[in-house]
Design a protein that fits this description.
This protein is mostly helical. The chain has two domains: about 100 residues, Arc Repressor Mutant, subunit A (Orthogonal Bundle); about 110 residues, no CATH class. About 60% of the residues lie in helices and about 5% in strands. The protein has 13 helices and four strands. A two-stranded parallel ribbon has the order 1-4. It has a two-stranded antiparallel ribbon with strand order 2-3. The radius of gyration is 23 Å and the shape is globular.
């Protein structure tokens, strides 16, 4: 799905999202997406603040954000937090292109009056506009370049995704949208199976001693933690980390199906 890469003065409402869900869901996504265009590429705004942008209450925003997270458009990086604003990331399912700027009627009228100037004046105005666009782009590129050399801001994750990120050697502040989505999906499965942070750390010890990739020093991917968890469960009896319920056959099948879909998407991009 593709739409605008950068907006000035307005919030994007995507037709495809409106058709799939509703106008409100699309508007909520648009607000969160705008916040995600900041330096750290995440949205830290509270539900109340998001709601103020589009005239809805906190509960309404919460319902529609959940729909967007469940559908894979947004990623909740702090799913276990309670009574504090969560941190959301755009999952990258909406590809953004080009630039559009919105103006008020007064601004448009000012532009119309300029049409009565001489052709020479108009040409100067166009040249100045082009210069302004070029300068803005240059500043943006310089800012991005400085960001690459700057120290990334640290993101505080909830216990389970934090333990998972530590196991997989993932720095939360450097996660791509796709990786953040994979962490979110794996976190949801681990929580549903009753897995605790201590069990995730115990899994790490098992991984580096038993899995052939771990013995080579490779860290597991989030999805691999779920895929090999039953092997860990079969060999961990009698430890002091507490017992997780393990994954059901349906959950394991869901993991396999998601992996097949991801592989198909990767092949499609080649």
């Amino acid at each position: 799905m593709s739409f605008l890469t950068e907006v000035k003065g307005w919030t994007p409402v995507i037709d495809a999202l409106t058709k799939e869900f509703s106008l409100t869901t699309s508007a909520v996504y648009g607000v969160v997406w705008r916040y995600c265009q900041g330096e750290d590429r995440i949205c830290r705004a509270s539900l109340e603040t998001i709601g103020e942008h589009i005239g809805v209450d906190k509960a309404t925003v919460m319902r529609h954000i959940k729909k967007l997270c469940d559908a894979g458009y947004l990623v909740d990086l702090t799913p276990e937090l309670r009574n504090v604003p969560h941190i959301y990331a755009d999952a990258g399912r909406a590809k953004i292109i080009n630039l559009i700027e919105a103006q008020t009627v007064a601004q448009c009228n000012t532009s119309k009056r300029k049409k009565h100037q001489t052709v020479a004046q108009d040409n100067v105005t166009v040249a100045e506009c082009n210069k302004s666009v070029a300068q803005s782009q240059l500043k943006k590129e310089e800012k991005e370049s400085k960001k690459e050399g700057a120290r990334p801001k640290q993101i505080q994750l909830a216990p389970i995704p934090a333990a998972l990120a530590d196991l997989c050697r993932i720095r939360p502040e450097l996660m791509t949208n796709g990786l953040a989505h994979e962490v979110q999906e794996s976190t949801n499965l681990l929580q549903q199976a009753g897995i605790t942070p201590d069990l995730i750390r115990a899994f790490g010890e098992w991984w580096y001693k038993n899995d052939w990739r771990g013995r080579k020093g490779e860290a597991p991917k989030p999805r691999q933690v779920c895929e090999t968890w039953m092997q860990f469960e079969d060999t961990k009896s009698g430890n002091d980390h507490g017992q997780g319920r393990g994954f059901t056959a349906e959950q394991l099948e869901a993991i396999r199906l998601r992996e097949q879909e991801s592989e198909q998407e990767r092949r499609g991009r080649r």
